[in-house]
Amino acid sequence: MMKASRLYFGLALALMCVCSTEMLAQNADSSKASEEKLVYADFQKLENGRLVSTRGGRTQLNRWAQNMGAAPKIRGLENAEPPTAAPARVTDQDTAAAFEYEMRMPNEWAGVNLEVFGQPEKDGKPVGDDISGYKYITMRLFGKGPQLVRVELISRGLGINLESGYPQMTFRLSPGFNTYKFKLNEFRQPDWVTEQLDFKRDILQKLTSVTVGVFCDKCRMESGTVVVDNLAFEK
């Protein structure tokens, strides 16, 4: 099922038709936009064959499940360890990050996400960004299979030690490769979290990574593709 070459060559053709007009409009206004946003990851850079964020932070694919014996399957860049997304050509000038997933049973809950670190580690530790001056997060997404996508704002190794339960936003995908924009102050920790964070101090002033992924509750067999591009923060 998960044939990487077939997926990404086919995906490139499909996305090129959807995106070419929009890309021309965006390029014409790029100089103005750069003054108002932090481009966190446009996936135009490779290091050691792996996609990295705009400033060289690593990318990786994560998975979790209530029953790890039936954990989700993931497919991105071939033979990558740790796993990471594969480059997907959108246009001649634009590359996105893509991965396939397959949810499995039995599982009360499970998920897969792409984690993007804003900067490379320093002395073996994550480096945080202060994004408290920004109001919005934007990204371009394409999904075949999933109806809902979840985005999380993460701070690791800077005084916060949560394994899960970071502020998140869950939303429904629309058909096609679309731009989504959300207010940062609408992100919330899940109701089940016992350790409540100070959103500005603990997350916005110490952001180390952003995750974009899919999940299931009382899971059933499901497979799909997710493509992420142009992850940014705007004022």
Question: What's a concise summary of this model?
Answer:
The chain has a single domain, classed as Jelly Rolls (Sandwich). It is 15% helix and 40% strand. The chain has helices at 4-28, 30-34, 199-204, and strands at residues 37-41, 45-47, 50-52, 59-65, 73-75, 86-91, 94-103, 109-117, 136-144, 148-154, 168-172, 178-183, 209-217, 222-234.
Characterise this structure.
The chain is of the alpha+beta class and 235 residues long. It is globular, with a radius of gyration of 17 Å. The protein is built from 3 helices and 14 strands. Strands 1, 5, 6, 7, 9, 12 and 14 form a 7-stranded antiparallel sheet that branches. A 5-stranded antiparallel sheet has the order 4-8-13-10-11, with no helix packed on it. The chain has one domain (4-234): Galactose-binding lectin (Jelly Rolls), CATH 2.60.120.430. Helix content is 15%, strand content 40%.
Distance between the termini: 42 Å
Q: What percent of residues adopt helix (DSSP H or I)?
A: 10-25%
Report the CATH architecture.
Answer: Sandwich
Q: Work out the number of β strands.
A: 14
CATH fold-level assignment: Jelly Rolls
N-to-C series of helices and strands:
HHEEEEEEEEEEEEHEE
Q: What is the CATH class designation?
A: Mainly Beta
Radius of gyration: 17 Å
Average pLDDT confidence is 88
Shape: globular
CATH homologous superfamily identity: Galactose-binding lectin
How would a crystallographer describe the biggest sheet? Answer: 7 strands, antiparallel
